[in-house]
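Researcher: Last one for today. Full complex below.
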Amino acid sequence: MGWVNAIIQGILTGGLYALFACGLSLMFGVMKVVNLAHGDLAVVAGYVAIGVITVTHVPVLWSFLIVVPVMAVFGYVLQRTLIQGALDRGTLTTLIVTFGLSVVIENALLQFFTANSRAIGTNLALVRGSFKIGSQIQIGYLLVVIFAAAVVVLLGLQYFLSSSNYGRMIRAVADDQEAAQLSGVNYRHVFGIAAAVAFGTVALAGVAYGMYSQLDPTTGTDTILLFAFAAVVIGGLGSLWGTLLGGVVLGVAQQIGAQINISDEVLAGYIVFLAVLVLRPQGLTSRRSQS
Amino acid sequence: MTDALLEVRDLEVHHGQLRALQGVSLTVRPGEVYAIIGANGAGKSTLLRTIAGLHKPTTGSVWLDGTDVTRVRTDRRAARGIVMVPEGRRLFGSLSVEENLKVGASYARNGPWTIERVYELFGWMRERRGQRTAQLSGGEQQSVAIGRALVANPRVLLLDELSLGLAPVVVQRIYGMLPQILATGLTVLLVEQDVSQALRVASRVQCLLEGRTTLEGQPGDLTPDRVEAAYFGLGHDPGSEDSDSGGGDGGQPVPSAGLPLAGDGADAEGEG
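Model: Here's the assembly. Have a good evening.
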């Protein structure tokens, strides 16, 4: 029964990892930007949520309604200024710039919020509560909600990309920037929209992780970015549903590793990650599933 | 000059160190089909791309209907009515035929062209609107590329090497559509390596050689000898535009009849 429990926990954790990963995948798929500050931005979103909850006393879950739009606007602005500026100088420059951004964010968080870790909504029934199946399997409500949220986000993203005007333009710009311009499409604006959407998912990921575990200034690069990368690579670059598959595979691998030996949890995840890189470098879903 | 719809004044364009265009001017009047001909690397595509805004000129200017658009961004130019069908078609590969047209119509001006109308022009397209463009033949892809430009309701339609990589029959068929397109009040500026095709459809022709204008006139007034001389630069200084010599050539084929579709302007040098 311990194994079944591990697999169920792993699958559910995969939803959280998919939330981490889908924004990273979107930004890479559309703009060819590997956003190394992805995890730190999620942590920023978590801190923003903590700030919003402390100041306005809104219920914890309602903080999404503020944090997601704030991060989306921030994403648009960041894309149109810093990231676009880096893109104009070549794709590699974006690596350096987002790496720099990551360092700046991490140290700014350390400076202003100390190295203490924080959690979101620790006294909520949703966060603390769980239900049992049989005597061995115990499932936290929160993980179920996060998994459901990830599925909803991916469905929403898929609908947005395949059916909306902006989604169509995002795919067109990802295919051929120049041809899109010739059709009157301002690709910088479209990039901004894509970044706004990606940052919206980052915000969800950050707050979700803050509720699931704890945030401190280094969580972004230590945990979120690495797991997001692993999920994207396992699932297949540029594939939306691949991030969920990748997240689930990563989550299950970690839980099984933990079942064998609690200290092997993270290691097991990376072994699967490396195995996929070696055996199937294009990822488990090799085709784009964005449309 | 007031009746010019599109005007290019004394354009000079560099690709890095390389001078691709030098002192090129042209005036396109409403309703005209204006053809730029020239060998590979003569600077034709560079000229068109500069007009569309994809290259920045070193000096010179581009005017649309009396307004200087030299500093206007490509997408804004498209919205103002300078729309290009790029060389090699450049369709959005992961989008369906209809989605390609929808992107073209995203920032369309008001005008006669709609997706419906494009479907009427190209009869096969409606049935296959859900297909990815990668599944289409070259000629069909070119039609979608033209349709994508038309739905933006351009004032000036720029056509870059429509014939490239297409069978002669297909090229004929696509150029056969031109009268129906012109009937809606469009003006066309096209670049074509296939000289005979260009001379057939154009009301005005300009020949480029190594980035300079070597000949300009109406197809009816140009003898094959003059076109050939301008095309290859035979017995002719590319810099002087007033040459009237037929060129002291030998057994070269007459361009208007004998030039191949693409890529064989081997006598002309220069890149661009």
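The longest strand of chain B covers residues 18-28. The radius of gyration of chain B is 18 Å.
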